[in-house]
Amino acid sequence: MKDLPQLHQKKVLVLGLAKSGFTAARLLHKLGAFVTVNDSKPFEENPEAQELLNLGVTVICGRHPEDLLDEGFELVIKNPGIPYRNLLIQKALEKNIPVWTEIELAYRISEAPFIGITGSNGKTTTTTLLFHMLNQDGKSPLIAGNIGTVASGVAEKATADHVIVTELSSFQLKGTESFRPHISIITNLYEAHLDYHGSLEDYIGAKKKITENQTAEDYFIYNADQQMLVDHAKTVKAQGIPFTLKGRTEESISADSEFIYWQGEPLIERKRIMLAGEHNLENILSATAAMLLSGGTKETIIRVLTSFTGVKHRSQFVGEWQGRRFYNDSKATNELATKSALEAFSDNIILLAGGLERQHSLEELRPYMNRVKVLVTFGETADRFAEFAESCDVPTVIKAGLMDDAVEKAVSQSSPEDTILLSPACASWDQYESFEVRGDAFIEAARKYTEANE
């Protein structure tokens, strides 16, 4: 870990705890800063604050005093989820006090280079896939960021022999200043998080910060099928590495219906790749390009692509039984996510869908419902899903209770070559405490069948 002399005996405010705030506060204290933590959770219910107080950190809990910034702070590190309209953040900016997220702190202390991955969709899959590739190739990767591991905690332990593969949200990137990944990836950009950013321009601007400090020694991997990113690449100093799904090209990485190509040469047949779906092909191309730029071997890439079954609960291949393939896409808590899942499979889908009633329209799914031969529906939206499926002429519609019942009914209606897909298009809270618990219930029910093949 690099020392930061500029923080010695400097007053730093950490706004918001959770994992990232706690890790940053502990690290800043270790670096010799005078740290104050401010968190909304009451002290008696806040074990992180209690631990920091025992270390000698000043802790203010249960409220956000409006005069807090009168204490002479020289830096604010905020939890990524706190919006910039927060009064304390606004006051800090008015006073020209730098406001970072802990990603900036991670970069400044790290001895290891970063690979930064962002985009509206596909960040987690790309990050996980690339990590597996690098790990299988002996490149000593560490994984961090929005994927669930606090980047500054990872950077504290990293050495120059490591590489930190980092998933980055717009919330995290907006609070960066000097962050410079050696390889940056933007998988795609769509309208998102406008409630936080206030405008599409602010959201896209935050995403583009991933390339802001890159130089000609660095690489920028981007989606050449989006004109916005093609235009952005022209303004970036890093070497541009475009990827496209629209057919074979001689430059960089590309794909057609048969192969993935690197610099125009076939790399792997698409039918050998375990990770299904056109949306995942963007993730595969960007991860593969980053792997090759990192010195990874084609043999390792092929080995991983023919075995990697996806991130848990995101179009995750669970197993096979008598020609039926089970996929867990419990993370699909809205119709757009389920639309992407249905796009990944051509036909013979037995779809398990339903959950918390939020009165969302289901019309985005209509063009893809002709791929569904059976709908098994459950939860608060069961009746509405059944009516919708019947209006789409889905041949068989069945209502179920909990997941074990849904899987049993799905299997009873299935034939060899069918895809049994959990992609609910709804949140889980009517029946399960989280989409993870719902997905685990699906996996457990499916394994009653798939374990017979093991």
Protein architecture, described:
It contains 16 helices and 20 strands. It is α/β, with parallel strands linked by helices. The protein has three domains: about 5-100, 3-Layer(aba) Sandwich (Rossmann fold), CATH 3.40.50.720; about 105-305, Mur-like, catalytic domain (UDP-N-acetylmuramoyl-L-alanine:D-glutamate ligase, 3-Layer(aba) Sandwich), CATH 3.40.1190; about 315-454, Alpha-Beta Complex (Protein-Tyrosine Phosphatase, Chain A), CATH 3.90.190.20. The strands form three sheets. The protein has a nine-stranded mixed sheet, sandwiched between helices. A six-stranded mixed sheet has the order 15-16-20-17-18-19, sandwiched between helices. A five-stranded parallel sheet has the order 3-2-1-4-5. Helix 1 packs parallel to helix 6 (about 150-155). The radius of gyration is 24 Å and the shape is globular.
How does the SSE layout of this entry go?
Elements lengths: L10 E5 L2 H13 L3 E6 L7 H9 L2 E4 L13 E4 L8 H8 L4 E2 L1 H8 L4 E5 L4 H14 L4 E5 L5 H7 L5 E5 L2 H5 L8 E4 L7 H4 L2 H9 L10 E5 L3 H7 L5 E6 L8 E3 L3 E4 L2 E5 L8 H16 L4 H8 L10 E6 L2 E5 L6 H9 L5 E6 L17 E7 L3 H10 L4 E4 L3 H10 L6 E4 L12 H16 L4
Parallel strand pairs: 1-2, 1-4, 2-3, 4-5, 6-8, 6-9, 7-8, 9-10, 10-11, 11-12, 16-20, 17-18, 17-20, 18-19
Antiparallel strand pairs: 12-13, 13-14, 15-16
Subcellular location: Cytoplasm
Protein name: UDP-N-acetylmuramoylalanine--D-glutamate ligase
EC number: 6.3.2.9
